[in-house]
Amino acid sequence: MSAAPIPPLPPLPAAAGVGASADEGATVQALREIGRIGIFAGALAARLFRRPFFWSEALYHLWTTTLRCLLPVVAVTLPFGMVIALQGLEIFRMFGAERLLSSLVSVAVLRELSPVLASVLVAAQGGSSTAAELGSMRIKEEIDATEVMAVDGLQYLVLPRFLGLMLATPLLNIAGNVAGLVGGYVMAVWIEGEPGGIFLGNLWALTAPMDVWAGLLKTLVFGAVIGLVACYQGYNTTGGAAGVGRAVNDTVVQAVLVFIVANYFLTSALFGGMGP
């Protein structure tokens, strides 16, 4: 059975010259938008367990998103790892504790740097692309044509893209972890001349398997946020070509804002009670 798009809500009546009324109208509109996103998320969640399963489509979008975002993730996390090593080395040299440099790099990269940067780049590269694809299909009425043929647009067009973004983000986080650690090694050992054996020997002194798993869990959540926002904005695009541009812009801004805020709560829950 086909799923029709969520109809647009009517605009609120104009406020009669009162600033407070305008603020209330904006608040109500924001709450309505949050409610519509919640309904959209529920519709996607229901289709996770409903046949048919388009696994080939999901794998295709996972593959294309990973390839599209791999080079940007590596290109950004590697120099950030180098910067952390450079700045940390200056501080550790003041106390004669250069041996702890690699521990600092591993904690920073695994817990925060790679998960956040990889997710930002997935939102900017993969999320925007997904929103543009679905938005163009909506404007050209391709989604409507699909649903006229009794094909569930959410099941066939949206869910595979959502899963692709959600699962690609942890994979790209792994690449970001490796690139960040390599960048720290290059800066500390090849450029600053620190002993390579000491760097590698202390690389895992302050880290545990929990750091790796927590980073993967965080990026799984971030990927779900990116996929949900991108698919929602693209699927409900209106207003022609300009509407597609707005959907792409809103996808990046909203997704990054939401998962940056969520990162604080996830980090507090996962690492708040942990010592180094």
Structural notes for this entry:
The protein contains eight helices and no strands. The protein is an all-alpha fold and 276 residues long. It has one domain. The chain is elongated. Mean pLDDT is 87; it is low at 11-19.
Provide the fold topology.
Blueprint: H1 19-47, H2 55-95, H3 101-139, H4 142-148, H5 153-191, H6 196-201, H7 209-235, H8 240-271
Concise summary:
The protein has one domain.
| Largest beta-sheet details | none
Taken from the alpha-carbon principal axes, the silhouette is elongated
- The computed structural class is mainly alpha
The helix content is over 70%
Query: Topology as H/E string?
Result: HHHHHHHH
For the termini, the CA-CA separation is 53 Å
Low-confidence stretches: 11-19
Compute the CA-based radius of gyration: 22 Å
Quaternary structure classification: single chain
Count of helical stretches: 8
The amount of beta strand, in percent, is under 5%
| Total beta-strand segments | 0
How many domain regions? 1
- Overall mean pLDDT stands at 87
Any key phrases for this structure?
single chain, 276 residues, mainly alpha, 0% strand, elongated
